[in-house]
Amino acid sequence: MRENELLSVENLEVKYFLRRSTVKAVNGVSFTINKGERVGLVGETGAGKTTTALSILRLIPEPPGKITNGTITLNGRNLMETSEKDMRKIRGNDVSMIFQDPMTSLSPVMTVGDQIREVISLHSDMSKAQTIERAKEMLELVGIPGERYGEYPHQFSGGMRQRVLIAISLACNPKLLIADEPTSALDVTIQAQVLELIADLRKKFNMSLLLITHDLGVVAETCDRIMIMYSGRIVESGPVRTVYKNIQHPYTVGLFNSLPRLDIDTDRLEPIKGMMPDPNDLPPGCTFYDRCPYVMERCKQELPVLSEVGEGHFVACFHACNKESSNG
Amino acid sequence: MLRYIIKRLIYMVVTLLATVVFLFTLMEFVPGDPALVVLGEGATDENIVAIHKELKLDDPYIVRLSRYVGNLVQGDMGNSYKTRQPIAPALFARLPLTMTIAVWGIIFGTIIGLVAGVVSAVKQYSLFDRVLTAISLFGASAPSFWLAMLFVLIFTLKLGWLPATGSYTFKHWILPIATIGLQASASITRMTRSSMLEVIRQDYVRTARAKGQTQFRVVVSHGLRNAFIPILTVIGTNINGYLGGTVLVESVFAIPGLGNYVLDGVKTMDTPVVLNGVVFICFMCTIVTFLVDMAYAFIDPRIKSTYGFGTKKFKRARLAKAIEGGTAG
Ligand SMILES: Nc1ncnc2c1ncn2[C@@H]1O[C@H](COP(=O)(O)OP(=O)(O)OP(=O)(O)O)[C@@H](O)[C@H]1O
Ligand SMILES: [Mg+2]
Question: What ipTM does the predicted assembly reach?
Answer without folding.
Answer: 0.86
